Each structure stands twice: as C-alpha cells, then as structure tokens.
Amino acid sequence: MNLESEEVRPRHGRSKSRRNVLFVFLGLFVVAAVVSTIFVVSLAQSFDNKSQTIETAFPDEASRPVKAVDGPSSNAMNILLLGSDSRGDSVDMAEGGAASDQRSDTMMWVHIPGDRKEIQMMSIMRDTWVDIPGHGEAKINAAMAFGGVPLVVETLEGLFNNRLDHVAIVDFEGFKAITDALGGVNVDVQVPFTTGNGKNTFVKGQQQMSGDQALVFVRERYAFTDGDYQRVRNQQAFLKAVMNSVLTPSTLANPLRINDLVGRVSPYMTVDSGLDSATIGKLAVSLRDIRSSNVKSFTLPNLGTGTSADGQSIVLPDNAAIAAVSKALTDDSLAAYLESAGIG
After folding, report:
1. Among residues 284, 317, 277, which one has the least CA distance to residue 301?
2. Cα–Cα distances in Å, from 60 out to 66, 152, 159, 173?
3. What is the mean pLDDT of residues 117-131?
4. By the 8 A CB rule, do 273 and 55 touch?
5. Residue 61 scores a pLDDT above 90
6. How far apart are CA 219 and CA 308, in angstroms?
7. How far apart are CA 344 and CA 330, in angstroms?
8. Which end of the chain has the lower number of beta carbons within 10 A, N or C?
9. Angle CA(315)–CA(316)–CA(317) in degrees, nearest 5?
10. What's the pLDDT tens digit per position in 176-217?
11. CA distance 215 to 210
C-alpha cells in the first residue's frame, strides 16, 4: 500500500504542475488578448475622432459606373487619394461641392486587386486635359475648384469607366507628420535640386529627410525643367520610402510606434464616411502579406504638353492608354497591363 500511494502522489504532483503551467499560459493569453483589444480600440478611436469626414464624397448614383458583383473585379477596391495644400481655402468648402481655390495638387488612383497580392498607385498629372461634367474641357485638377470632391470623383469615374470605392484627402502637412512619426524617412532622390530660396538642397541618392525636408521635397516643382512631372515622381519616391519604413516588422510589431503614427497623421486625413477605422482594419488584415516591393507606382501615360484653345499650358491625354487602363481596371488585370506596357 505504501509503495502504491508513493507512486500516486508524484503523478498527482506532476498533473497539478502541468495544470499550473497551463493556467499561466492561459492567463498570459487572456492578458495579451485584452491588451491587444484595448490597443486596437484605442487606435480606432484615435483615427475616427481625429480624422475629418467627407459627408458628400460621391456624385449622384445615377451618374456612376455600376460596381461589379461578380467576376474578376468584384473583390477589387479603388481608392482616390488626393493631396491638398492647406494654404488654399478650407477643405470643408471643397468637400460638399462648393467652389473654392482648392486644387487637388496630388491625384492618385489606388487600385487594390481582388487577390490582395499587390497595390498599384496611378498618379494623374494635375494639368491633364479632360472633360469635366457640366463644365466642358479643362485641367483635371480644376474639378475640385468647380464642384469639390463629388465632381472630382465623377470626372475620374467617367474617364476610366470604373467606380471608386473610397476617397481620402491628405493635407500636405500630413506628409510632414508621417515623416516625423517614423523618425525620418530615407528617400531615393533621382534628380538633385536646390530650392529657389537656396535653403534646401537634395543630393542624388538615398537621403534621410526630416518632416520639414519631406514637405519641401513633395511640394517643389519650379526647380525642374519638366516641372510637375518631376514633382509627381518625387511624391511617388516619398510614398515608396514611407512604405519601406511602415511595412517592416520593426514598425508593424511596435504598438507604440503605430499608435504615434496614427495619432499624428489622423488630424491631416479627410475621408469619406465609409472609410472608417473598421473598414481600414479589415483592409489591413487582407493586406497583411504586402511589403513595399509589392507596391507599384506609375504615372498615367500621356502625350506630353501642349496648349489648349484658350491658351493654357496643358498635359495632353493619351486616349489609347486611358482605354487600356480602363479595361485593366475592369478586368482586375492592371499588373499584367503594366508589365506588358513596360510601365512602372
């Protein structure tokens, strides 16, 4: 009996020890889950409370392309990203369709394919000569001045015969905030330049930029012989540098850094009512395997510069390229189009 009871006791002790270890792990898991939930909720509240909402971002439904409910593009997402300069009239005036001096100095159509394997960002030259509904032919960035965000959306949806799902406006000051929140970004400067006032010089090659430097870098166009063309390329280079900094384990696994980034940038963001933290969270989860190498940026091909009938210097649209991009968006085959056309 004694031998039997002595054999039982150690077995009971080992079982109890295992349960204790299990309880510890369960406890840690619960604590981690609670902390993660609090962190996610905090981020959501920070974005939803600090960002501004465009109450009327889209034109009348009757004038819009129909969203595909099946087929290759049904799960794709198109987001219009606009960069505005806070030195103009309040963005509030432009949001609802009121005339203002706001111009969409940066205009990008961001396409997220249904398979979520890439992100394609298409810059559209702001002087591209297009038909603006109700106003005739004009530079595309005049749409914001004529009728605010809804008219910009209507113009672009008409141009590409594809529907935009969301709109986001980033004040240029937001570029500065993003850079500072990341502790600076390392940008690949392809064309060296010095600003007209001589205060800022950007040398060729990789250059670490502060927020103030980044703001100058994305705004400058007068220092270049091709003006806005190089400015668009610089903006693309800056966004790529931001992606390189954000889409890394050192950032994604650092809650404090993410919290700081969201908190600093949100006040400079204006989004449509559907682009809230819940929508962004779902999108982020679907893009969890995306890295900076999977983000492709390019400029909508055009036929160079020319002069309009009323004497304006304009960017001539390449209608064949526009038709090809339109088809690629409809077929959700933009990556294949870019490769076949040797773009990007």
Report:
1. 317
2. 12, 13, 16, 31
3. 95
4. yes
5. yes
6. 25
7. 20
8. N
9. 115
10. 999 999 999 999 999 999 998 889 999 999 999 999 999 999
11. 9
Residue with tokens 């077995």, as numbered in its chain: 11
Radius of gyration of the chain (CA): 25
Dist. CA 82–CA 105, nearest whole Å: 7
Give me the pLDDT at residue 174, please: 87
CA 215 from chain centre, in angstroms, equals: 17
**pLDDT digit string, tens, across residues 76-121:** 999 999 987 654 444 444 444 444 445 567 899 999 999 999 999 9
Identify the burial level of 279 via C-beta atoms within 10 angstroms of its C-beta, where 0-12 means exposed, 13-18 middle and 19 or more buried. middle
Cβ atoms within 10 Å of 103's Cβ, excluding its own: 20
Q: Do the Cβ atoms of 210 and 220 come closer than 8 Å?
A: no
Cα dihedral 298, 302, 307, 313 in deg (nearest 10):
0
Residue type, 132: I
What is the residue type of 87? R
43: its two tokens: 């981020």
Instruction: Encode pLDDT of 82-92 as tens digits.
Output: 987 654 444 44
